[in-house]
């Protein structure tokens, strides 16, 4: 494989003209290229020395060794994730694979046989990871589905399978595995974990020089050009997911060695930390830039933060705030340079101020009609016959319809399995009420995704808004009059800050909103003191749970919202600009779209939608609770993609996303009605979501 | 010469004498490693641990620092090791996983650090565990429901977080009981994640194709309060409420009081309904008690490795409203608080233990000890 690839791909860098007189020297170029990983390393060393200085005793070899082995599972998994990210993808199944490997190993090892072959079990773990990777790779590379939704489905399926292997913590991992991986390679000098990470880094430095490595960067930068230069995109993508799976598998083996037993949930919560490690290590989300070595330092930084919080005795409620701050700071420092977005924006601001002072700014020029002559002229082209409905909307229909087709199938299945469905208004009412939350989130998250971003701060924007509202209204309808504006104002501020982080600081949306989510969680805990007080008011409760002629009042709001959302994205200038930015930020900017404002606008919209969900959820439950938004993050992304939107932006219709929300809710309703064990439900859920998006696959061109 | 030496020696002795008691008084460093703090139970338990540390019994003996690991076991492993490194004498842990911490706990024990886990367990033998018997909780609540239904009827289960030993312990024990009664039919099973909010969405999904008339009883880990509220919203009367075996939230217990009982601050479904209930809980004082045991261990006392707390069970016969919520009143048997004191119905009411006179209502609410 690497042989065919090598010729066109490696030729490019060599063909570059040799350094001209003013080009930076080789070491300098190396520094410039490896800036982000080096910063991550420096941040880690700085934090580590800080811990050392503040700790009562000096850090012994054991502590250093433990520090490294503690970060190794995250580092290995994040390295796999980095491969996928470099190729322009996303892998949400990574954490689930770690749990699966851990569960399988703990279940299969024989407690009677104390000695076990470390090599054999390691290969078994890597093999399991690669198998899941191959499934991901098949659907992403061969069937050409969007990585985020493929890996979301496999995540559910793998989680279900893990629970089938092991329904609660237990099992046995041979001590041989533990003493090998947690032990020393050189007694008292080099821990085995460090050797493992070193080998992984060596593997990468070899890999990226091969044809495969070059092709990986090429695909991540621009898949179309990569294909045009003769790179076998399908094969490289497939191999990327398989390799990444191998890394998750190895991480699972290491976790098994580290914990000495099995836990079916052990890896699931590593997922978000993985993305943080990837980004801190200097890899660009979206692909084409970065590397695996930086990721190792990123993982070390994230783990040493735990020690920092401890030696500084940061209060529990501030922990997530501090972590969010560290994430933002580390990424910001890594990206600071003369050509970073931040300095670009500052330069632009300075220029605009100078122009204003000099009186030459665009807005200070005399206003007047400067339209081109032919537009105002009478010679309007003769209108041809309006294109047919299908011609106008064919593309939207093709991507929005699959969700509705699957919805119909799920509804029929519900009628068959549970009965009392299609002719029962109570079913439709419940389905629509439960879909309301997702439909509202779809507008906000959908608008963000249409611009090519992602909003991960949805969960705690929901939580904080609900808690704030319940605390302010205290069960009084009159109080809603001022509570609602306050809650929406707070949400708008959250969105504004998210947007500014993306636009002004030039940080990846995932980083900004992930950090914001942590900070919001801390704020919600501080505001509520750990126990949220207050009630929804009677009017709000009536809106969500009352009945007028069998119809829950919120459905009126839902109908208005769907019409409003469709018009906002489809018929307003704002909507057009959102699509324009998603298709090409640069083209939109050149066409006169004030891209910064629009991008900030979609984050504000997303925060407002999340706040509305927080308010309605409070009305639905009667009170607010911490963590009430936790279950809405992944579904909010899934419905947008299932509804036909492209995760990289520019394509998707709000009505399609509404279909996605209805489909997901109907599917959950069907599964909840059965007495199937949770493991099977998770597998079925993943399978149906995957089936739903197969119809969305991109055509070969 | 000899004189000065003797004086010097005496001075040294005096100095040493002065130093030794001061050393004895120096507080021992104890850490609390919490899990996820985004729910009511965790926040309440943490408040009670803090109150215990500030109480007269412990405040001169230990110095408590609280850290949060989040839902991530890897981080808790790292955190516990960092605590050992920072000179911890004892660590009180809410373990994210019963097994994943074993290695780090073993290495902490080897350094003489006492590890006490609360609510969930750590299976490493050197750790101390303070828990309730989860299987007993599942069995007794299931038996109550079977008896209430006369051994016949359609029931709905709402479980906790799948894949945890607490959830499988309770659920498997309950299912064993139901399996013994062929008249009992499980018609629906939902994953409730131990959250009232999730219980509501899951029950709404279950009820989309069903009617309350099709269901005779509910067995829930968390959510009876919500289930009762939903029945009222569906237009059923308080007398028609289905028997529900479930959690020890204050809202649920207020609903158990006889309908028409005057309670201050009642609102909406958070009012006395005479709802047929059995209410059990993992008591949130377990963390505070774990801290007390840790202090006893540091004093050199003997403590059993596995402390099983008595399962707090309240039924309609034993539910009793607290007037002020003082510790003596709770000792006399009251077990539910007025909504005017506890505005959050999801708050857990099983805070009383004879063994922890240091912590009461104020401890659970704001982290203030009784003395």
From TrEMBL, chain A:
Alphabetic keyword roster: Cell inner membrane, Cell membrane, Membrane, Transmembrane, Transmembrane helix, Transport
Chain intervals for the UniProt region annotation (Disordered): 1-26
Membrane topology: Multi-pass membrane protein
InterPro entries, alphabetized: ABC_transp_permease
Transmembrane segments: 38-62, 82-106, 118-142, 148-166, 186-206, 238-259, 265-283, 290-310, 316-337, 399-419, 425-444, 456-473, 479-497, 504-528, 548-569, 598-620, 632-649, 654-672, 678-696
Main location: membrane
Stated name of the protein: Ribose transport system permease protein
Species assigned in the record: Ancylobacter polymorphus
Automatic annotation (TrEMBL), chain B:
Keywords for this protein: Signal
Matches recorded under InterPro entries: Peripla_BP_I, SBP_2_dom
Signal peptide extent: 1-24
Cellular localization per UniProt: Cell envelope
Keyword Signal belongs to the record: yes
Domain Periplasmic binding protein: 31-301
Protein's UniProt keywords contain Signal: yes
A Pfam family of this chain: Peripla_BP_4
Principal subcellular localisation of the protein: other
Domain of life: Bacteria
Family listed: Belongs to the bacterial solute-binding protein 2 family.
Name of the molecule in the record: Ribose transport system substrate-binding protein
Organism: Ancylobacter polymorphus
Origin organism lineage: Bacteria, Pseudomonadati, Pseudomonadota, Alphaproteobacteria, Hyphomicrobiales
